[in-house]
Amino acid sequence: MKKLNNYIGGEFINPFSDNYIENINPATGKVFSLIADSDENDVNLAVEAAKVAFPEWSSKGAEYRSKWLLKLANYIEENVEKFAQAETQDNGKPISLSCTMDIPRAVQNLSFFATAILHDKDEAHHTSTNILNYTLRQPLGVVGCISPWNLPLYLFTWKIAPALASGNCVVAKPSELTPYTAYLLSEACQAINFPNGVLNIVHGYGHQAGAAITAHKDTKAISFTGGTQTGKTIASIAAPMFKKLSLELGGKNATIIFADSDLEEAIETAVKAAFTNQGQICLCGSRILIEKVIYEEFKIKFIEKVKELKVGDPLEKNTQQGATVSKAHQEKVLSYIEIAKNEGGIILTGGNKVASENLPNRCKDGFFIEPTVIEGLSPFCRTNQEEIFGAVTTLIPFENENEAIEFANCTPYGLSASVWTQNLSRAHRVASQLETGIVWINTWLLRDLRTPFGGAKQSGVGREGGYEALNFFTEEKNVCIKF
Ligand code: NAD
After folding, report:
1. Which domain CATH number covers 206?
2. Cβ 443 vs Cβ 271: under 8 Å
């Protein structure tokens, strides 16, 4: 069986432990590859390789780094099909999504930062006629990037691209649930002769390999995307070491539908917002707040659309809902449906595992869940407060604008919101009062990579994207000259 080994200093290396973790295809429930079970010995080796590579990589200049990152982007683009197949096999997401979103976005992440650094400029301040201040932005050295399983290569490259573009060398760890495309990326590095040691990829469990990256004295910054609890653990280790920290964490996002919205479009997008990637996107709208006067109409039409979603083999081109990422996660999501019932929730559609007779043979042991819609719950109950991160959404009526804002803001999270109204003044008013890092008006998941991306409250600390990301991976130094 294929072994996914660590990529360190330009070479594929067995883990010190010689142990491997089974990698399961969530659509079939079958093991299909083995992942290096790395520990601090492997991380130490990777950090040493990165330290050796740093002087040359950081000093060669933006054009040199841009050229290499574009080569990497081109390689992925030329092999989209291979990467997309691997992403779907690893994660269970529909192949249409891997082909049109995940892998193209990974290409875009690399090319975006590769070209952004060609247009960078430094700040200068003339303090008086004979005094000039200017700001140097210098790479940090070796940085750690740790990413989750829901958008594997998409989020992996979202971190490593700005880190590398700004001149750092990287030790990165993909999720142990979805390591395959990061492994293919290391193969890509070898195929194009990417400079050795600049990007090092260590596989394994978070509490072991991830924790070792966080705790290593020579990783100067940690860029982490994942759960809020893990974020707390990482912060508790990295903060006392005064590392730079970027934490992109969980969400419990509201889709807010006012009576004056374009209802057809709002419904179509609310379905996508709730269920794309089986509801496993941090930005998914898992609470739909609906103005009372249109609640019944919205509910009937929304349920109709949800029932039309085609759940099935993620390798089929027309599948819209694939498998949940793992058995453990499937159980977690199903346990929340039980919690919702106990809290008085009414299941309007879904609520169960997909019955094996409704799945093709190949997928009978896969981890599928019916897209689930629940109503009748208080906005303050557990179902509406805690992140479920699956194909489950709730419908909550509201009386007026103030109540919509109160309900939207009433969770510990603050990642994103999607507001639907034709009233421009209201759109601005509501956007400014939502306690989130991102607000979409009459749309969802429309991304411009130049914009700041991140969460408020327990959804994270710091912002990624554009110059925010490049600044995060650099140390600013003010130089003051008197002449
Ligand atoms: P997770 O926190 O379990 O794991 C994320 C990564 O951290 C994995 O690579 C894991 O191995 C590693 N890790 C785990 N424990 C660690 C430790 N102690 N030290 C260092 N690394 C450790 O999250 P997940 O289940 O993979 O992802 C789902 C979560 O990610 C959800 O909460 C989701 O909302 C969040 N997410 C947030 C964003 C965002 O941009 N805000 C984007 C995607 C996903």
Report:
1. 3.40.605.10
2. no
Distance 399 CA to ligand 1 centre (A): 36
> What's the 249 CA to ligand 1 centre distance in angstroms?
7
Q: Containing domain of residue 434, as a range?
A: 254-449
Q: Specify the residue with its C-alpha closest to ligand 1, atom 14.
A: 206
CA nearest to 113, candidates 65, 150, 151: 65
Percent helix / strand / coil, the chain, rounded to 5 = 45, 25, 35
pLDDT digits (tens, 9 = 90+) for 92-140: 999 999 999 999 999 999 999 999 999 988 899 999 999 999 999 999 9
Are 315 and 399 contained in the same domain? yes
Which residue type does 204 have? G
What is the ipTM, given to two decimal places?
A: 0.98
- The number of the ligand 1 atom at minimal distance from the alpha carbon of 214 is 20
Let me know if residue 392 belongs to a domain: yes
Q: Is residue 103 in a domain?
A: yes
Helix (H, G, I), strand (E, B) or coil at 321: strand
Atom of ligand 1 minimally distant from the CA of 177: 26
| Tally of structural domains, the chain | 2
Does 320 reside within a domain? yes
The pLDDT tens digits of the residues spanning 161-172 come to 999 999 999 999
For 60, list phi and psi in degrees, rounded to 5: -75, -20
Mean pLDDT of 377-393: 98
| Residues within 6 Å of ligand 1 by CB | 146-150, 155, 173, 175-176, 205-207, 210-211, 214, 225-227, 230, 233-234, 248-251, 282, 387, 389, 415, 455, 459-460
Q: Are residues 217 and 103 in the same domain?
A: yes
Question: Does one domain contain both 238 and 289?
Answer: no
Say whether both 263 and 389 belong to one domain: yes
Q: Which of 379, 411, 406, 381 has its CA nearest to residue 395? A: 379
Name the active-site residue from 248, 291, 375, 387: 248
- The pLDDT > 70 percentage for the chain reads 100
pLDDT, residue 122, reads 87
Residue 182's Cβ-side half-sphere holds a number of Cα atoms within 13 Å equal to 38
Residue 146 Cα to ligand 1 middle (Å): 8
Q: Are residues 33 and 150 in the same domain?
A: yes
Mean per-residue pLDDT over the chain, rounded:
98
Do 41 and 184 lie in one domain? The reply is yes
Confirm whether pTM is higher than 0.95: yes
Please tell me the distance from the alpha carbon of residue 391 to that of residue 377, in angstroms, as a whole number: 17
Which atom of ligand 1 is closest in space to residue 174's alpha carbon?
Answer: 9
370 noted as active-site residue: no
